[in-house]
Each structure stands twice: as C-alpha cells, then as structure tokens.
From TrEMBL:
It comes from the Bacteria. The lineage of its organism: Bacteria, Bacillati, Bacillota, Clostridia, Lachnospirales. CDD domains: CbiK_C, CbiK_N. This is Sirohydrochlorin cobaltochelatase. InterPro entries: Anaerobic_Co-chelatase (IPR010388).
Length: 281
C-alpha cells in the first residue's frame, strides 16, 4: 500500500537569516519513562548521530500524555506548535519534521496541519513519512519482525498488537497481516486494540493454526500502556488472558518497535527522503 507523504513547504521570500537546520522528531508520546528511554530517546539519539549538522528537537502529539507528565512529574513536553515556536526563537530557518507514528493516520495529519500553521516563521519545512508509508517500508518491517523472532517454532504463533484507528489508513494493518502470510509466515498475526483486525478476528484465525504457544508483542513504537495492560495485563479482557482462556500457553514480549535499531534506520532513511523533496513554490 502506497501512501503519499506531505509536500514540502518552501517560502518564496528571500531568506534574511543565516541558514540553520533542524530536525523535529514528533512522537505520540508515553508516560512510561523506561520504555521512553529505550524507544523515543533512542530514535532521537540515532537521528542526531546520523545528522550531526542538524539540531534535534522533540514534540509529542498526545495531549493526555503531556498533561499527565506535567502534573505527575513536572515534565513539560512541547506540542508541535510549541516546538515550532521554540525553533523559530532559536533562529532555525529550515526544518525537517520526522514523525515516529506507525501510519499516516489522524495524529499525523493533525501534526502536519499544526506545523504548516507556523510556516511563515521558516524558510522551508519538509516532512519525512511515517514508519509504514511505502511497500518498501512494509517489506522492511516484515523482515525486521521475522529476524527478531527467527526462533519461532512451527507450533508457535507470534501475535502483534497494533493500535488501530478510525482513519482509512487503518487498512494497512490487515494488509500487513496478509503480507506476512503471503511471504511465507503463516504463524505471524497482526491485529489492533481499537479497530480491525480485532482480537475476536485474531482469536478465530489463530485457532485455525492450532499452535501450542502464543507469543504476544506490541506493534507500536513504545511498549506503553496498551502493551502493559491491554496486551499483557491480568484483566480478563486483555489479549493475554483471552488467549489463556482459549487454552493457549502465552508469553509476552514487552518490546516496542522503537527498540529495534533497524527501525531507527528506517526513520533515518525517511529523513533522507525528505531532504530530496522538491521545493513547493
């Protein structure tokens, strides 16, 4: 599935300031400090190492998480508009915005709107695409997952938990699930917490494979609240408990996609793609 990335914005006005370049890494966010260090922090550090000539900035899109961190821990995280304002105040002239969002859904579209509302403060703004944007991205991620769980036995099933959305981009989850099978991995399944494929669908499909053991892991950048509770929690509605109730042995691997260095490299590749975008008059 091919999804178009946002166009670059380049001002037609002459640049009056000495060019200063920055990369704004935009994430949904997490209130779990340990998984943040392993994922969002690690991605930002990898990007900083790959592009030492750029200043690296951070913004999150989850208002709920940012509010929780501020109230609970006194930690202030910029939203996109606040980060754009800070960059302008710091004299940044040219910005590449790289989301760590998995798909080009609602969060990503709102992020682009917020960023472009600040366009008059910059000479250029370019956007890197989310994690899964091209067929090459899909193939790369399938390879990363397969290699990470290369010891998966024939009588085991790997079940990935995605977030899911009401946005039409949600169709990529079903497409990825199908592609796993098409590439010869019939015992790898991908579902979502909040959309399709649902847990009900997954349970039916997994039962048809008759595995002895289920391995659950998040298909999200961070192994945060959804992973800890909806996937691996002890509530009867959690995926772990539902699979146990269905008679399966279950193992949970609380490792977000952002912990894989290969995922960092995908985001770096996306930034390089953004740098090649043709200016928009």
């Amino acid at each position: 599935m091919q999804q178009l990335s946002a166009p670059a914005f380049v001002s037609s006005r002459p640049q009056s300031r000495q060019p200063r370049q920055a990369i704004l890494v935009v994430s949904f966010g997490t209130s779990y400090h340990e998984t943040r260090k392993k994922t969002i922090d690690a991605i930002e550090q990898a990007i900083g190492s790959a592009f030492p000539e750029h200043r690296i900035y951070r913004a999150w899109t989850s208002k709920m998480i940012m509010k929780k961190l501020l109230k609970r821990d006194g930690i202030k995280i910029f939203n996109v508009k606040e980060a754009m304002a800070q960059m302008a105040a710091d004299g940044i002239t040219d910005v590449i915005i790289q989301p760590t969002h998995v798909i080009n859904g609602i969060e990503n579209e709102l992020m682009i709107e917020d960023a472009l509302s600040c366009k008059d403060n910059f000479h250029s703004i370019r956007f890197g695409p989310p994690l899964l944007t091209s067929s090459e991205d899909n193939d790369a991620l399938i390879s990363i997952i397969h290699n990470a769980f290369s010891d998966l036995a024939d009588d085991e099933a790997l079940v990935l938990m995605g977030h899911g959305t009401t946005h039409y981009a949600n169709s990529i989850y079903a497409a990825m699930d199908y592609t796993f099978k098409d590439k010869g991995y019939p015992n790898i399944f991908l579902g979502t917490v909040e959309a399709y494929p649902s847990m009900e669908t997954l349970l039916r499909m997994v039962k048809e494979q008759h595995p002895k053991k289920i391995i659950l892991t998040p298909f999200m950048i961070v192994a945060g609240d959804h992973a800890a509770n909806d996937m691996a929690g002890d509530d009867p509605d959690s995926w772990k408990c539902q699979f146990i109730q269905a008679g399966f042995e279950v193992e949970c691997v609380l490792k977000g996609l952002g912990e894989y260095p290969e995922i960092h490299n995908l985001f770096i590749r996306h930034i390089k793609q953004a740098m090649q975008q043709e200016p928009t008059p």
